[in-house]
Amino acid sequence: MTLVIGFAAGVTPTKWTRIWADRRPDVPLEVFRTDPAEQDAVLRDGRATVSLVRLPIDETDLSVIGLYNEIPVVVAAKDHALGSAETVTVAELADEHLLQDPDAVPEWRDIATEVHDGTRRGLPAMPGLDEVMEQVAAGVGIAILPHSLARLHSRKDVISVPVQGVAETRIALAWLTAETTEDIEEFVGIVRGRTKGSSRADSPAAQADGDKPAKKAKKTDKAKAAAKAVRAAAAQARPASAKKTQNAPGRTRNAPNPRRRRS
Prior knowledge:
The termini are far apart. The chain has about 260 residues and is an alpha/beta fold. It has 9 helices and 9 strands. The chain is elongated. The longest helix is centred in the last third of the chain and has 19 residues, at about 220-235. Residues about 200-220 and about 240-263 have low confidence and may be disordered. The chain folds into 2 domains: about 5-70 and about 170-210, Periplasmic binding protein-like II (D-Maltodextrin-Binding Protein, domain 2); about 70-165, Periplasmic binding protein-like II (D-Maltodextrin-Binding Protein, domain 2, 3-Layer(aba) Sandwich), CATH 3.40.190.
């Protein structure tokens, strides 16, 4: 059986597929890139066993685990004034023309001048990000993208600057819950960084089946319990000691003071 991995543009599964090839050479891999609109569709129609997705997606009937976040960047023409900035706030982009659906970047949409005053013009035909970058390079407008996508489609005539005030995007691993297999659990363990010996024991299915190893008592707890038992036994074996009634040696209790006698 082959494990088929779909992955969103900008996501690099190489480090995980290499570990899989070393750990599970008996199960071959197939890897292919998905379009944004089909990240979860490839799971539902059987084209992929697991999918590395950029959230949000329709999570119905899916198991989804978050992996990491991506920072947003603004991409602009090389000669744009933003080129000298190390970072910008979304408020500084309010007067720019966004070459995306405003709903894709709600933080910009809510403060954008062209949206509020009704001067926003229609977008040219741009089937993909390569065409968006072409428009950006020509100075038509800007785009706000996850860092990995900006890097994937980078050009010498375009700059990218981190944007503050825009939510980061999340990369996650998804699969059909009803079709969870040991191979999927093994891959989940790999992307989570678990070692070969711990992958099965820590898997969700293993915990549900009750086959997770019982937690061993800590050595320090055992030592403390043993020491307490020894002290208790010693206390019971020790004879009770009589209460002392004498004062310090050399003196008798209530002895008269010879200086008070008169001859």
